[in-house]
């Protein structure tokens, strides 16, 4: 099997023949997917807010959509970082804001209520994914209680004891 | 052979790769008997240090048995020799090597031009540690090619288990150099930030070098417990003020010697707003590191004291209080470890029973479990302090 990465190997260095399971779990991959989704949506909201507000019957709310776009971008960047828990949590908070904003636009005078309903359904779906990913990341990457249970009080590193180790330097100074 | 290969951020895999070959007469090939995951491997895992490429083999803490020797190394090594491989690759002949400044060997970095652009002058080649330092395949593998093998090795005797010797490759001399370059006096308080593997070695080194008191700073109970076992007074920075406690322990004067075993990824906490500031800037790619520990050391260190920095920093940082550093007359000593400068002495200390570095090992697994252990080590789960891999 050919691996693209092998073209960067110096001559004579080991090349990949067959790849094994990744340290990236399904949870990590889901978080990564949501991070990129956040960045994509954020860019759309920043670049084309008018198209969104027109489709949702929310004309005049472009500044708010842009602000939400900036929020999505920030959450996406954090979700793609090692601090994915913080990014995902901020996404859930953002989802709540999105839902509240869409609910407010569901009024009878909005001619695009159907579109808003569709958007609301999508946001609720993504919110469920965000919540699931947040919980899964917390379980997968959080410190478990048994980490605290491990105690290393007997691991001095000094076979002859700490006090003997302290005397080593004194003996050396006196010897010198 | 099997090897742990970097495929991207947080993506390490145990791959089948082709076996290494002798490329130069000074090379040797070793069959790896033990290797370890280092804290600085996590910086690569997070892709915080530039110039990693998919397909790079990880690992720079390795030991094993020589199975093949190039003609140029045969005077110093032979098949069957048991060696620990220092993480810094050294030619042993250049001006810097002759001065004992092995980590800035002028000849071992095969991407010297790149390193000169990045650092001004080249540093030594390192195993498994980005293409800035040569892009050499690392030792988390079944076999390892050792370049400049006639100089890049520490011969070790039979009869002592791998676990006691493996850390001569990096963390033991790193912790030792951190303490040694503090010029510890019998009246000194040595404060050590970070109780990971290097911090633990620095604590033992400071004790062996005769510090009056050693203070260890962290937040994880199991690591603080291990630090206390080694003779340190501990400070949990989640529970008390580091600065107040250090001043209290030193009669208000501050520690004479401060050692940063944390480096670029200091813990982010609401209690320390500068860490949030640094993290935000890192997200925006406006700052490379989170130098909270460095700031704290400069603030709390006694005037005329020494700051020793074995912790890895990668690039440009801001809000470093240089005025404070200058006015207090502090001395800063840092650098990658000149491993071979210290290993004869440290091997003797192990043989004499002064120290047994295996105390730090909390997990021993096969190479195939390596990808999972990267996460366990990163997330500090299951009391993980140090992982040894057995290929």
Automatic annotation (TrEMBL), chain A:
Name of the protein in question: Cyclase dehydrase
Domain of life: Bacteria
Keyword annotations: Membrane, Transmembrane, Transmembrane helix
Transmembrane stretches, start-end: 116-138
Keyword Membrane found: yes
Organism: Alsobacter soli
Lineage: Bacteria, Pseudomonadati, Pseudomonadota, Alphaproteobacteria, Hyphomicrobiales
From TrEMBL, chain B:
Domain of life of the organism encoding this protein: Bacteria
Family: Belongs to the zinc-containing alcohol dehydrogenase family.
Biological source species: Alsobacter soli
Parts of the chain that traverse the membrane: none
Domain Alcohol dehydrogenase-like C-terminal: 197-269
Molecular-function GO term, any one: oxidoreductase activity
Cofactor(s) needed for function: Zn(2+)
The protein's name in its UniProt record: Glutathione-dependent formaldehyde dehydrogenase
């Amino acid at each position: 099997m050919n691996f693209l990465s092998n073209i960067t190997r110096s001559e004579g260095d080991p090349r990949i023949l067959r790849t094994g399971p990744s340290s990236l779990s399904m949870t990590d991959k889901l978080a990564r997917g949501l991070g990129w989704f956040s960045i994509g949506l954020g860019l759309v909201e920043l670049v084309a807010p008018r198209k969104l507000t027109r489709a949702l019957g929310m004309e005049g709310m472009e500044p708010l959509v842009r602000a939400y776009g900036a929020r999505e971008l920030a959450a996406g960047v954090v979700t793609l970082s090692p601090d994915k828990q913080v990014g995902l949590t901020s996404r859930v908070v953002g989802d709540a804001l999105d839902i509240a904003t869409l609910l407010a636009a569901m009024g009878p005078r909005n001619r695009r209520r159907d579109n808003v309903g569709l958007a609301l359904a999508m946001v609720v779906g993504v919110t469920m994914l965000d919540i699931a990913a947040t919980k899964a990341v917390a379980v997968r990457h959080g410190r478990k209680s048994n980490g605290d249970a491990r105690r290393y009080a007997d691991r001095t590193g000094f076979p002859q004891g700490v006090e003997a180790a302290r005397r080593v330097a004194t003996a050396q100074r006196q010897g010198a | 052979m099997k090897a742990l290969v970097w495929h991207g951020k947080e993506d390490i895999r145990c791959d089948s790769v082709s076996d290494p070959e002798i490329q130069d007469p000074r090379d040797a090939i070793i069959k790896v008997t033990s290797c370890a995951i280092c804290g600085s491997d996590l910086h690569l895992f997070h892709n915080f240090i530039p110039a990693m490429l998919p397909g790079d083999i990880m690992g720079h803490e390795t030991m094993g048995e020589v199975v093949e020797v190039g003609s140029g190394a045969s005077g110093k090594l032979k098949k069957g020799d048991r060696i620990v491989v220092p993480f810094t690759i050294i030619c042993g002949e250049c001006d810097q090597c002759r001065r004992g400044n092995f980590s800035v060997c002028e000849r071992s970095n095969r991407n010297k031009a790149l390193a000169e652009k990045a650092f001004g002058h080249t540093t030594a080649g390192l195993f498994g540690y980005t293409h800035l330092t040569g892009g050499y395949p690392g030792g988390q593998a079944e076999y390892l090619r050792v370049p400049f093998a006639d100089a890049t090795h520490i011969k070790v005797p039979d009869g002592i288990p791998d676990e006691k010797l493996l850390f001569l490759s990096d963390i033991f001399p790193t912790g030792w150099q951190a303490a040694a370059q503090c010029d510890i006096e019998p009246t000194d308080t040595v404060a050590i930030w970070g109780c990971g593997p290097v911090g633990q070695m620095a604590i033992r080194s400071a004790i062996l070098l005769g510090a009056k008191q050693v203070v260890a700073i962290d937040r994880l109970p199991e690591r603080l417990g291990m630090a206390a076992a080694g003779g340190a007074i501990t400070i949990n920075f989640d529970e008390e003020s580091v600065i107040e406690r250090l001043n209290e322990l030193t009669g208000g004067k501050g520690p004479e010697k401060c050692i940063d075993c944390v480096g670029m990824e200091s813990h982010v906490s609401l209690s320390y707003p500068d860490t949030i500031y640094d993290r935000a800037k890192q997200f925006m790619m406006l700052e490379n590191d989170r130098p909270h520990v460095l700031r704290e050391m400069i603030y709390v260190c006694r005037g005329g004291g020494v700051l020793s920095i074995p912790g890895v920093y990668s690039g440009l940082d801001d809000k470093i209080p240089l005025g404070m550093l200058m006015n207090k007359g502090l001395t800063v000593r840092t650098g990658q470890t000149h491993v071979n400068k210290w290993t004869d002495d440290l091997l003797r200390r192990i043989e004499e029973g002064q120290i047994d570095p295996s105390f730090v090992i909390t997990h021993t697994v096969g190479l195939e479990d390596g990808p999972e252990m990267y996460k366990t080590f990163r997330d500090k789960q299951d009391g993980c302090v140090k992982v040894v891999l057995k290929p």
